[in-house]
Amino acid sequence: MDGSIDLMINMGPQHPSTHGVFRLVIWVDGERIIKSEPHIGYLHRGSEKICESEHYAQIVTLFDRMDYVGNLNSELAFCLATEKIMDVDVPERAEYIRVILCELNRIASHMLFYGVYGLDAGAMTPILYAFREREKIQNLFESITGARMMHNYIRIGGIKEDLPGDFQKRIVEVLDHLKRGIEECDALISKNEMFLARTKGVGSISGSDAIDFGVTGPALRASGVAEDIRVTDSYSIYDRFDFNIPVGTYGDCWDRFYVRVEEMRESIKIIEQAVRSLPEGDISASVRRIVRPPKGEVFVRTESPRGDLAVFLVSDGTDKPYRVKVRAPSFANLQALEQMLQGAYLADAVLILGSIDLIMGEVDR
C-alpha cells in the first residue's frame, strides 16, 4: 500500500502458540495482516521414506507418531490399506473394538483442542476441564493397549489383544463421565461474551473456497459442507451406526470450535451403539506375522479427528512396501491459512491458526 510502512513479524518456529514446530511469517500494516507465509519443515520427520525400510507390522508404530494426538485413528488408516491390498477380512469383534477406540480417540483429540483453544483465547480454565475428561480416556486406553499414546494396538488383520475383563463396567463409567464433562465444557466457554467477541466472524472461509484449498474434517464442515468420510465414503463398520454430521454456517473460528464440541457428542452415540452390539469371537484374522502383500497399489480414506486421512500404498510383493504416501489433513488444511489471515487483526492470528487444529507431526511427515 502506498504511503504505508509494512512490518514483517516472525511467529515461531519455537513458540507455544504455533501448536508445534511451525513458522508463520506475517506482514502487517498497523494492526492488520496484509500478507502471511506459512513455513513448514522444521520437525524433519521423514516417516513416509522410513516406511520403505520397515516391515508392514513395524510401520504401525510410525503412524502412531505422525498424528500423535489421534494415534489409533492413524493406525487404523494404514492397517485398512494393508488389509485391502491383501484382501483380508477382519473379524467382527475386532471391527467393533477398533471403532470404539477410534471414537474415544476422537473425543480425546477434540478435548485437547478445546483446552488449548481456550488458552489461545486467553482463558485458563478450559484446559483444566479438558484434561480432566481426557485423562479418563487415557487411563482407559492404558488398561486396553498398555500405553497412553503410542499404542501399536490396531494390527494388520485385527487388534493386538482382547479387551480387559472389566471393560464393560469401565466404558459405562467413562461415557457417563464424558457426557457430563462435554456439557460442562460447552457451558463454560461456548457462549462466553468475550470468547464470542474473539471468534465470531474471525477467520471466515466459505465452503467453496475450503473445498478448493483441500480443507477437510471439522474445518470444512464448519463452512457448511456436510462431508464426513465415515458417511460419504464409509469404511470399517461405520455404516451400521446412526449419527449426525455437525456443520457450521459461517466458517469462522467459532464454527470450527463448536463443530468439534458437537462431534464429541456424536462420537458418544457411536461408542454407545458399538458397545451394545459388541459381539464375541476372534480378534484377529489368520495372517502371517511378517506379511507379504501381493504386488499392487491401493488408496484408502478415513476420517481422522482433523479430517480426510488417506493412505496410498504400493506393494512390490516383498515384506516391505515399495511406497507409502500419506494424505495428511493437517497439511492440506494448512493451505487455507493464508486466506483466513488476510485482512485479520494481528491479535487474531493465534486464534485463526489454532482453529485449524494442526498437528505438525503429520505435516512434516
Structure explained in plain terms:
The chain has 365 residues and is α+β, with helices and mostly antiparallel strands. It has one domain (58-341, 350-363): Orthogonal Bundle (Cytochrome-c3 Hydrogenase, chain B), CATH 1.10.645.10. It contains 15 helices and 8 strands. The strands form 3 sheets. It has a 3-stranded antiparallel beta sheet. A 3-stranded antiparallel beta sheet has the order 6-7-8. A two-stranded antiparallel sheet has the order 4-5. β7 (307-315) and β8 (323-327) form a beta hairpin. α4 packs antiparallel against α5 and α11 runs parallel beside α14. The radius of gyration is 21 Å and the shape is globular. The two termini are 38 Å apart. The mean pLDDT is 94.
Largest sheet geometry: 3 strands, antiparallel
Strands, count: 8
Can you list the strand order of the major beta sheet?
Answer: 1-2-3
Pattern of helices and strands: EEEHHHHHEEHHHHHHEEEHHHH
Question: Could you say how many structural domains there are in total?
Answer: 1
